[in-house]
Design brief:
single chain; 435 residues; alpha/beta; Urease, subunit C, domain 1; TIM Barrel; 2 domains; 9-stranded mixed β-sheet; 16 helices; Amidohydro-rel
């Protein structure tokens, strides 16, 4: 595709106006203010008039649970432990493969609509999730969530076996669109032998780890009581977790030592601002993490605790929440926000050639309409993108050079059928719960 007369966010996260960008296959092959040569534009595909539009790297959602769209609005106004134990876990016990397939596909449709091109996804029924993700054209770093409440040896734990099998079967699937990670649900849902075993699997296969960390004060306090005063971050570090790249979701209740461990381990913290607020978990101290040198990416968590995947909402909250405390040291620049939403998320997934508008990089791109009332006038396009834009301003989403959504139309998803089948699954599960 040839994008002409379009503004863009360049690889330094600055705004450039009236640019041309050419994609061929799954790559960006030209970026410039001059007309590209005929050799570059030959067979470059359709021409897109970018007047009044802005081209951004696609968003990388660093933490999600896609099938949980079945539970959107189901467990409202509850703290995390009650939400999980009284609403979510009983519902999840009734999940089935077909329901997971359709609900994942609905989440892919919502993601595409809001400019998300890839998600770090932690859940169950991963074969069915991968089928949905594959059909949608999206990218994903997917992992099977490991829990162990019985004390059984990891090799006899079905969730641990499923995690390993997933890595063996699917890592690099669909020409690299789909990667598989090791996974620990959390410290509080596993025993020490399982934690060590997950860390060893990551080292053995050379894959990243996804994990929930210090989401609530209660979780952190009880971990310290169980493990001789060690916080979840310190405990995981002692188990060898940070020998591998880690995406640590939430990280709301950290101390200075935790932040140092995360920085030295080159972990990425997935900040889930909306979910943490909704569940009353607290606010991730992003300025302290940035000051410590920790990489920050953005996550939505599931729509059961969000309740949507509008990444512009996540960017705005990420930028604003720490301002509650006041003071110049709480300022997060728009460039930092856009970096966290794109490049940092791509790097957390091990996708070195993604997350930037740069020649040679994968063509994971979104077009945002700036010629709408909420985006005008423009004193700073960066400020408008972070504070004024909405997911509904996304006009086009491209993954690996393929347009998946444009002006209300999906190219890979039958939205009406997907919504109908997902609601049928919701009704089936609720009927089973009410028996």
């Amino acid at each position: 595709m040839i994008f002409e007369k379009i503004g863009l966010i360049d690889s330094s996260f600055q705004y450039q106006s009236d640019m041309t960008v050419v994609t061929k296959g799954n790559r960006i092959v030209y970026i410039g203010s001059e007309k590209p040569s005929e050799e570059i534009t030959r067979e470059g595909g359709p021409v897109y008039d970018g007047t009044g539009k802005v081209l951004l790297p696609g968003f990388y959602n660093a933490h999600g649970h896609s099938p949980m769209c079945l539970m959107r609005g189901y467990g409202e106004n509850l703290p995390l432990d009650e939400w999980l134990n009284n609403r979510i876990f009983p519902f999840e016990a009734k999940l089935y493969r077909k329901g997971v397939y359709w609900s994942t596909l609905l989440t892919m449709a919502e993601s595409i609509r809001y400019g998300i091109v890839s998600t770090s996804d932690m859940y169950m029924f991963c074969d069915d999730m991968i089928r949905s993700i594959s059909e949608s054209g999206m990218k994903s770093n997917i992992c099977h969530s490991v829990t162990n409440f019985t004390g059984a040896a990891p090799e006899k734990n079905p969730s641990f076996k499923n995690m390993k099998d997933l890595i063996l079967m699917y890592d690099g699937f669909e020409d690299g669109r789909i990667h598989t990670d090791a996974c620990l649900h959390a410290e509080y849902t596993n025993d020490e032998q399982t934690v060590r075993a997950v860390a060893e699997v990551a080292r053995e296969f050379g894959v990243p780890i996804q994990v929930h960390v210090s989401e609530t004060e209660k979780e952190t306090r009880e971990c310290m009581e169980r493990h001789g005063g060690r916080t979840p971050v310190k405990y995981l570090s002692d188990m060898g977790f940070f020998d591998s790249p880690v995406t640590a979701a939430h990280c709301v209740w950290l101390n200075d030592e935790d932040r140092q461990i995360l920085a030295e381990g080159k972990a990425t913290v997935a900040v889930n601002a909306t979910s943490n607020l909704k569940l009353g978990s607290g606010i991730c101290d992003t300025p302290k993490l940035l000051k410590a040198g920790v990489s920050l990416a953005l996550g939505t968590d599931s729509v059961a605790s969000n309740n949507n995947l509008d990444f512009f909402e996540e960017m705005k909250l990420f930028a604003l929440l720490e301002k509650i405390k006041g003071g110049a040291d709480t300022i997060v620049r728009p460039e930092d926000v856009l970096y966290a939403a794109t490049r940092a998320g791509a790097l957390s997934q091990g996708r070195e050639d993604c997350g930037l508008i740069q020649e040679g990089f994968k063509a994971d791109l979104i077009v945002v309409d700036a010629d709408v009332p909420n985006m005008q006038p423009v004193h700073s396009m960066l400020n408008n993108l972070v504070y004024s834009a909405s997911g509904k301003d996304v006009r086009l989403t491209m993954v690996d050079g393929k347009v998946l959504y444009q002006d209300g139309e999906y190219t890979t998803i039958d939205l009406e059928k997907v919504m109908t089948e997902t609601d049928n699954a919701r009704k089936k599960i609720l009927n089973s719960l009410n028996r």
